[in-house]
């Protein structure tokens, strides 16, 4: 009897699996290739602002909305475009005064800075991700490759500085590492073998979010998911544990771990699978959007508008409206002291899980066991510092290139970071352990045309939210003398290190300012100043967590999109939108893209003949 029950369960399971993996019940946003020949990059800021800065007015809200999206980050815009492509009328509401979230830009003293887009991987032509991005932007966003090497890891103090270049290309990456670390060939090969095994297995995370919840939970809680995917079996192992077992060489250990800065957890806390995902992301290369990060939202908003939707800014959603049965029916937007209510059958939140559950839902609903369970599974991620420098001089004059520097003052990354965050604030900020340094202007081929004779440099680092929390309620740009002093200390310590590495910028600094965790809180609505949303440590990448944090929420008609679902990053937030779109449209959008991609490849090869 058990055998037959087992068989029935297996058949049911396969049937459900097929239905959800190949399910095609809703309309398909990837049905046709919507790319158009790229128009010239919009260089006029005023023209871009007409699209990016449309303020919220009740009169601008379209009638008969199909969905409301809270937040205009890439995760919010992507789900809005996916729905617009199947004819849905979507309203995107953004609390800041411009659209884009981490992809927004700001200008000061004639310099334009972007926030959260330094380099994006996996954009190789005909690749799956490139196909998704092309369709989301109707082929209007153009990408400029970075130099190869695209990253440089710099270890040690000025008098004993070691520089390790990081190259893209699967073979090149390892070959060049081996050149830097003779005798470590075996460790490097084994590291790459594990990285590829885990990184290429990320589909399992996506699958757990696409499958019906009971099936996903069955796979997770029986341990089947772990057996089926290296991503999970290595997800809960720390990066330090894996790397330390491969080599004793301290510099090599640091070089294999440096890219943790793109998701936030130092090696002892980092998930080996998350790390693998990032390394695999950049293996095919690294790119930057031509014209800067504001081009992203600028090229997506018209697609939403064409379907009758709108993207409105200065629209802070203060709560999600629920009916008597606790189902989402719309949102409330604060307009001065008044609430404006906007209704739609679906509400999608790009605001992150903490904001959405803890700020936008009534207390008694927050207490629901299913919501508390999800909240207990995630932690707030690392908070961040950004330093913006405006420079007098062209990239050639200043020796700036389209690449990134990762500067660490020592090679023992875990102790370094731990000493920093547990130290006394005033002392710690005098020497930041890790600096990411890049020149966005040098990456953008349109820059010389837009801002001739000038350059920019951006530095990113981490800092605990608690160091800045005391000023969070002070008025932005006027938070008092102590806050200003702390910022000045940070800027000075950053400048000291940066000018050692880029001596030509020394007397050329025309503008400088620093953003802190409370700056992120203000402009990005990052709940605790996070750079990358929820923590990406080992506890997040278990099958149980991946099966539980889904686009569907315990509240009917309320969905999640963006970086809290799959992972952070431009690509991670788009993956969040893809699983969200799959849930809403009741079809597997990844299957749809791969069908389209095959069609295009086929058409291309015919053209060539
Ligand atoms: C300094 C920095 C550097 C980075 N560098 C890179 C990089 O080089 N490459 C890369 O791939 N990724 C990078 N990232 C990460 C990447 O930018 C993000 O992970 C990704 O863009 C997140 O997209 P999202 O849509 O999920 O969230 P967000 O972009 O954060 O969007 C959320 C939006 O919701 C809005 N919102 C929140 N609450 C409300 C509310 N109540 N009402 C209305 N609106 C609300 C916010 O204002 C925000 O605009 C970087 C991030 C930072 C901060
Ligand atoms: C920029 O540098 C040039 C010299 O290279 C100088 O003539 C000019 O005044 C500088 N501009 C500013 C705004 O400092």
From TrEMBL:
Gene Ontology CC, one term: endoplasmic reticulum membrane
Reactions this protein catalyses: all-trans-13,14-dihydroretinol + A = all-trans-retinol + AH2
PANTHER family in UniProt: ALL-TRANS-RETINOL 13,14-REDUCTASE, BLR7054 PROTEIN
Organism: Pangasianodon hypophthalmus
Cofactor: NAD(+); FAD; NADP(+)
Segments traversing the membrane: 558-585
GO MF assignments: all-trans-retinol 13,14-reductase activity
InterPro entries listed in its UniProt record: FAD/NAD-bd_sf, Retinol_saturase
Keywords: Endoplasmic reticulum, FAD, Flavoprotein, Lipid metabolism, Membrane, NAD, NADP, Oxidoreductase, Signal, Transmembrane, Transmembrane helix
Record's signal peptide: 1-23
Domain of life: Eukaryota
Subcellular location(s) of the protein: Endoplasmic reticulum membrane
Record family assignment: Belongs to the carotenoid/retinoid oxidoreductase family. CrtISO subfamily.
Topology of this chain in the membrane: Peripheral membrane protein
Protein name according to UniProt: All-trans-retinol 13,14-reductase
